[in-house]
Amino acid sequence: MQHSFIYTKKMRTDFELENDVVTLLKHHDLRLTQVRKEVLSVFLKKEQALSQSDIEENVGQIDRITLYRTLRSFEDNGLIHRAIDGTDKLRFALCVDLCDKENHKHNHAHFHCEKCTKTICLNGVEFPKIIHPAGFKVKETYYVMQGVCSKCQ
Ligand SMILES: [Zn+2]
Ligand SMILES: [Zn+2]
Ligand SMILES: [Zn+2]
Fold first, then answer.
1. Could you say which ligand is closest to the alpha carbon of residue 125?
2. Which residues surround ligand 1, an ion (CB under 5 A)?
3. How far is Cα 62 from Cα 38, in angstroms, rounded to an integer?
4. pLDDT tier at 106 (50, 70, 90 boundaries)?
């Protein structure tokens, strides 16, 4: 099922948002719960990487452990990924590539703006293949760019 178009939508009504959330959860084999619905809505509305506290600010009352578990289930099911950005905050961003259970497939850089402090995915900006020394097994590679984003120029 093709669903990646959902990520490129710019404006949507509350009704469309709800529909998109339901579609994405279904596509990633996640049961619809109120918390999942609210948290995923924030990711779709904010086009940036979000920390646990960013999400808390946007969903009102939410139990921390429930939120933590929700993020883990999204990550495990290929809905969001860790946007490592060189800060000490752990942020997550939506996977626009077709990730699935236990299998994240992206190879894009993240950009951290020192002015607005936002972290965004540079989808489409692939990082070069780096040759690692023999005898090392690489599991993850993170590519972070830091500076001033286009909106803050
Ligand atoms: Zn992913
Ligand atoms: Zn900025
Ligand atoms: Zn990303």
1. 3
2. 81, 95, 99, 104
3. 10
4. confident
- Counted domains in the chain: 1
**18, part of any domain:** no
Asked if the structure places residue 11 within a domain, the reply is: no
- pLDDT of the residue at 1: 42
Asked whether residue 62 is domain-assigned, the answer is: yes
pTM of the model: 0.88
Domain range for residue 83?
Answer: 48-152
Tell me which long-range contacts 131-135 makes (C-beta under 8 A, separation of at least 24). Answer: none
For 6-49, what is each residue's pLDDT tens digit?
666 778 889 999 999 999 999 999 999 999 999 999 999 998 99
> Burial, 21: exposed, middle or buried (Cβ in 10 Å; 0-12, 13-18, 19+)?
buried
Give me the residues near ligand 2 (ion), CB cutoff below 5 Å. Answer: 113, 115-116, 149, 152
d(Cα 83, Cα 91) in Å, to the nearest integer? 5
Centre of ligand 3 from the C-alpha of residue 59, in Å: 22
CA of 81 to the centre of ligand 3 (A): 6
What's the CA-to-centroid distance between 137 and ligand 3, angstroms? 22
